[in-house]
Amino acid sequence: MDINTEILFTAGVAYGITRALSKFLNLPTRSAPWDALLRRIWVPGIVLFVLAAILGVKSELLNDGYWLLVFAAVAAMLIRLGNYRPARTLLLAIVPFAIYFAIQFLFSLLGTDIVKDFDDVFETTQGFSIIWMITFGLIARSQKKHLEAERLVREEEERNKQRIEAQNAELERLVTERTAALTQQAEELRYTLTELKTTQAQLIQAEKMASLGELTAGIAHEIQNPLNFVNNFSEVSSELLQELEEEQQKPTRDPELESELLADLKQNLQKITHHGQRASSIVRGMLEHSRASNGERHPTDLNSLCDEYLRLAYHGLRAKDKTFNATLTTHFDPNLGMVDIVTQDVGRVLLNLLTNAFYAVQQRQKQQEAGYQPTVTVSTKQGEDYIEIRVRDNGMGIPEEVKQKIFQPFFTTKPTGEGTGLGLSLSYDIITKGHNGTLSVESVEGQCTEFIITLPLAA
Amino acid sequence: MKILVVDDEADVRTLFEQRFRREIRSGAFAFSFAYSGEEALDYLHSHLSEVVLILSDINMPGMSGLELLRRVKQEYAAPPPNPPLVMMITAYGDSESYNQAMQLGANDFLTKPVDFAALKEKLFSLEDKL
Fold first, then answer.
1. What angle do CA A330, A335, A338 make, to 5 degrees?
2. Is B112 within 8 Å of A275 when comparing Cβ atoms?
3. How far is A260 from chain B (nearest CA, A)?
């Protein structure tokens, strides 16, 4: 056969090699156009073969030329992938063989016999370049494997990183969510606290008003008495004046009677002033009691404060229970000077303790014990650096288990609606927190109870 | 006519003495004063035959006017001598106190503020009856 069948074979081999390379270098993803180009590496071979067959040319040079074209295409492709290390190594691998091949082709083209003359040299060079090519091919393979391993590690790292990032994002989201929930809770708590504080203030005021309500009748009685005196002394003074005028009209005047009438008039005016002041002091006390405390301390006559509230508490209960009667005893220390206290607050404490004391003796009186005389005693005492106030009653006494809870807010032994349960707890706060004092209780069940307030003199 | 006035307010004495000063001067009435139920009983023990009328407040510390009334009616239940009349005076003119006083044998029940003109009339009509 006079045709270059060799080229067909070469084209097949070239196609196989380029396919292998393409797979090795992962060409479709690295450079799709080059992959497509190399896929058609057989086309020039066939074209050459057909042309040669038509033209009737038969030459080994055609095959070699085709080989050179293949080399050139592969080299160009490898240069194109120059940033991929195995591709560079492969380029390095084929370069010597390609150069050798090109030189041989050149000499064959020129038709010189140098090849034959230097057959040994060429043989050696060819062998060397093939060994070189195989060696670097293997190196490229190991490089590829190495890179592949590196890539896997990197990918793994990347995946880990992404996972961590995702976790971080999730955590971030949870934190934000929690923070929002906590903020809302804090907001709600703050709101509740404000509400509670308002309620507390309202309760304190309500307690104050409740105790005032209990006292209304007592206060009315306490005001009515002095007012009666004011009215009576005014009326009788008018009568005295009239008598005086009549006396002056008489031809024989009685100077003794006149001076007596004048003395009475003077005395009556003093009585009117006295009782008027008594009434206004009670009204003032009532107003002070109902007003919110400003917490300011004022020098106060504790003995008269105790006396005032003793009477108020007593008449307050009497007004509700007409049959109730009690002996009021006071042991006031005359040496007690003016004491710096929040008058209104301490007044509330006294009122509370006294109201309780009268309630206790009233309860015991209801049991109709023979010979029982309800008695409430208030004593004051000046100590070395403190003042002591004792409120004692011979009422029902307090059971031990009740005594434990007596200063707790909302604790009451009275029927629902009769006590707020705040009186003693507020009293305790006023004495301990407001005045750095102490409030304690001693009691014998069924016999007596005594509340003891101590107030330090140096605040 | 001897009248014992029982009230814990000391100024009641001055008031009565002035209100009835003509009657006292003329000797129509004589007043004695006690400032508690206990004091009133003590006074009665020593001046029983003299006292014709007791005018007592109800609301007093210690022994109340009602208790005094009960004791007086109990102690001087049977004549002779004639038991003193007892008039109650109170700031609380409620029916409960009134009923209780009447039940205990009070001869009259007055509410504060006292109408002295009316009281004077009552006293005079009492004197007429005696």
1. 95
2. no
3. 11
User: Which residues, given as ranges, of chain A have pLDDT below 50?
Assistant: 1, 459
Q: Report angle CA A51, A54, A60 to the nearest 5 degrees.
A: 60
Q: What is the mean pLDDT of chain A?
A: 86
Are A240 and B18 in contact (CB < 8 Å)?
yes
Residue A225 touches partner B, C-beta closer than 8 Å: yes
Task: Quote the pLDDT of residue A180.
Answer: 94
**Chain B hits for A231, Cβ within 8 Å:** 113
Over residues B72-97, the pLDDT tens digits come to 888 877 665 677 889 999 877 778 78
- Amino acid occupying residue A3: I
The class that CATH gives domain B2-129 is: alpha beta
The CATH number of domain A296-459 is 3.30.565.10? yes
Among A144, A64, A127, A136, smallest CA distance to A94 is for A136
Residue B116: pLDDT over 50: yes
Residues in chain A with CB shorter than 8 Å from the CB of B18 are 236, 239-240, 264, 268
Residue (of A309, A318, A446) closest to A391 by Cα position:
A309
Instruction: Kindly report, residue by residue over A247-274, the tens digit of the pLDDT.
Output: 889 888 888 989 999 999 999 999 999 9
B26, B30, B31, B37: CA torsion to nearest 10: -160
Cβ contact, residue pair A325, B114, below 8 Å:
no
- Name chain A contacts of B111, Cβ cutoff 8 Å: none
Instruction: Pick the more confident residue, B47 or A134.
Output: A134
